[in-house]
Amino acid sequence: MCLAVPAKILKIDGNIGTLDLSGNSIQADLSLVPDAKPGDYAIIHAGLAIQIYDEEEAQKTLDLLKQITQHGEDQNGT
Amino acid sequence: MGKIKMALKRFSDPKLAEALLTDIAKKSRQIDPIRIMEVCGTHTMEIGRLGLRPLLPGNIQLISGPGCPVCVTPGAIIDTAAQLALQPNVTILTFGDMIRVPGGQTSLQKSMAGGGRVRIVTSPLQGNALAEKNPAMRYVFIAVGFETTIPVVARSLTIALEKGQDNLFFILAHRLVPPVLDALIADPELKVHAFMLPGHVSAVIGEKAYQPLIDAGLPSAITGFEPLDILLGIHAIVDMKARGETALKNMYPRAVKPDGNPMALALIGAVFEPIDAALRGIGVISSAGLKFRNAFSAFDAATTFGLDIAQDKMPVGCSCGSVLRGLITPDRCPLFDKQCSPETPVGPCMVSSEGSCAAYYRFERR
Amino acid sequence: MSNSAISISHGSGKELLALLNEIIHPILTLSHSGPHEDAAVFLPPPGRLGFTTDAFVVNPLEFPGGDIGKLAVCGTVNDLACMGAMPLQLAVALVLEEGLKVDVLKRILTSLRNAADACGITIGCGDTKVVERGRADGIYITTSGIGTVRDGINLSSGNAAVGDSVIVSGDIGRHGVAIMASRGNLGFTSQVVSDCAALNNLIDALLDAVPETKTIRDATRGGVAAVLNEIGLDSGVTFKVRNCDIPVADATQGACDYLGMEPIQVANEGRFVAVVPESKAALAVKTLNNLELGKEARIIGTAHQAGRFPLLMETDIGGTRPVEVPPGQLLPRIC
Description:
The complex is a heterotrimer of chains A (78), B (366) and C (335). Chain A has 78 residues and is α+β, with helices and mostly antiparallel strands. Chain A is 28% helix and 40% strand.
């Protein structure tokens, strides 16, 4: 039920954003993410942005991953 | 490459995946056998696509739940849309997922072969554009999906109202996750110890909606869709079990805020209100569906076209209902890989690209 | 011709002759001049002949990277080349829909002629029919091709053996994505350009360097997945490919992510899969990489003892799962 892609907002015209998806261009309705600005990555599902990616939280999750896997390596003595 | 793009690539890193799997295996030795229900059909697909199940330790079992909008859409709705497609000046608009799903009698694909006007869209907003472009045609959008999809349909309706579009209609088949979860955990037959929760539904509804799971003593993890997101979800659950903790962990915070998307929820509330609704193969669940609020009732295809949507009858022998509730794995259905296969599907779980049986057939048969 | 669109009267008589003489023959520069004959007659060169035919139906008729004319030539040349046959002669049958713009027809035919010239195939004969509006999607083209097969080459889909290496000639999934984007009804536009190309020179180079090549198949409808499933079944082996080794351009992957499709299932029109003995795999790839069209060629997997499925994929997290022949029509999904 959840296929959604992260796409980078290039420009915003009223409620419609033009976004880049690795060299593909899609348009999406941004009315439910009013704080969105060009440069943000939005999660687009069926033509609508449901949320903006939080870069800080992404980094925190990566740090958590590092922590879990590092700890595992230490324990295994690798 | 931008920072966030680089970050996103890390969520597919094979070395990190290997290390995380190792840690999951280690922690799993500290716990009893655990059955985790992954509620979202997209999770089912991804797990299959990654070949993940055999990589997990033997005491961790992943069960597919009823988060498959296409599977749980009543067959009668498909039959009704297929019929409607044959009427003059009507074009059915649908997501690609629905085209091959068998209804009780027929499918949209069969309707097309018989001359029915059916058009695939990737967004209901394309319906607004088509309706404006071709005023003589009546467009009817089949609105399926859980809370990930409901906001864009609500948005489409809002635009239609603002523009006074009188040739765009909707067949409502949306379902809601929290009421379905409530029904699942109230089921005495259900043997599930934890839930992997749908990341993008959660991006809309937030964390609070899942409180009943905690109250029922079921640890759960809101989970994203990249390979490492899925492993993080499993890891969080196994970790909680090992420490005897019952909590809801948000393992997808880059997309899921505690309050979800309040604007989206407000928009949904402005357009729709909850109603008891049937899930195909399961039966009626309290408040699991949506109906139009009065301001939007003119867009209801059911009243406009006088649609009489019959009660569903599951084909004899089909065990989709039990599969959807996580009671049996697909291979336990008497029809699986015999009468029922992707080429000759009996029930919707086999046709939907994310249906439990289709995913099992594609990825899990060894 | 003063008309700007094909009409049903172009199907026969005076108007057909005008269409042929003023537009079709001049552009296609059919090889015979002089009397109007019913068939091309020629002395075949010595050795075996390869013979193939294909019907081309594509919407839209013109797309980034090509059009139905180029597609028709490349498709037939590639089928011949995959059997080690160098192209000789092409027959071109056109079915034109009433209403087709003459300018579009001219562009398509020019493109067809250019593609034929580029791979050295002669257009030996042809036919033209016109049908009423609504009966031909603009234009249908059927091409049949004859080629001379190399001596000492016996390529076959049944030749693969356990231990052989699987090579793909370049990055995959472009054509399907370019077509879907340019239809304009799926909500995205794309930089992705179709990979539509004639593979005869590339295959020539491969066979020069590695005459032991077992089979070469162009990965058209159903993509690499369809072709490897077929070879696996025909040869009685199971191919295991590694997802991380399959070359896919970022833009192609992005479009597939958006639509919910997998590049390995998406159509190509200028890519082949080759199965070679393992000892020759490095040389094969090096040979291909030396040419522009093969610069992304890579070894993507190996043939194993036949199991339950003809094609398995090793996933990015180290799992294994079957890759089946995709359904006849890939559909975009939201779930």
